[in-house]
Amino acid sequence: MRLLLVEDSRDLATWLAKVLRNDGYAVDAAHDGEEADDMLRLVPYDLVVLDLALPRMSGLEVLRGLRARGSVVPVILLTANASLNGRVRGLDEGADDYLVKPFEVAELEARIRAQLRRAGGRPAPLQRCGDLVFDTTSRDFTLAGVPLALTPREQAVLEALVRRPGRTLSKAVLAEAVFGFDDRADPSAIEIYVHRLRKKLEGSAVTIATLRGMGYLLRHDAP
User: In terms of DSSP H, where are the helices of 2-58?
Assistant: First the structure.
């Protein structure tokens, strides 16, 4: 899942991006409204965390332009304005949720998970492929009931696959789910993460199949 974090405080943006990357998301960061607007025109993000008080172009202007282009990407606003009118205005412009600064990062993480579940149209919190279960609330994987220990990038690859059951994903698509603009994106690195995941899935009926020239497919090989 690829997120855009728009926050003019570079220290706060760096810290939040690190937390979210450790959660397994690919995160791009923008520090002013015009930069954010350009990135939103270029990349199909899964969710946007958008500060309202931005230089060069306000968060509300960014949001207004995004919705005017027909985008339905979930947007969580960050605002220092705790007034009812300020919150209502943001929601009226098309925001899906908001957080008032200062906030607990755990609450932001929970709101991100909730918005991603709603955007995916999946009210059920668990996604399954055989004995592999992904809890969309905690964002944890289990295999035959045992927690599966994954690095953030292994998590991002496996999540991308399990969220699209029966679909083949190319290396380029998986790379978009794993790498942000600031990462040294090498699609061939996906082969390494897939190899590691196959090792961790060994002994189960869940496999990652390679379809030559197309990409990878998560499947359950029932006996």
Answer: 10-22, 33-42
Residue 8 domain boundaries: 2-119
Element (H, E) at 108: helix 105-119
The CB-based long-range contact list for 106-109 (8 Å cut-off, 24+ gap) reads 108/16, 108/49, 108/76, 109/19, 109/20, 109/23
Is there a single domain that holds both residue 114 and residue 133?
Answer: no
Write the single-letter amino acid at 202: E
Q: For residue range 145-192, what is the model confidence (pLDDT) as tens digits? A: 999 999 988 998 999 898 877 788 888 888 887 877 666 666 678 889
| N-terminal to C-terminal alpha carbon distance within the chain | 32
Could you tell me if 112 and 138 lie in one domain?
Answer: no
Distance CA 94, CA 69 (A): 12
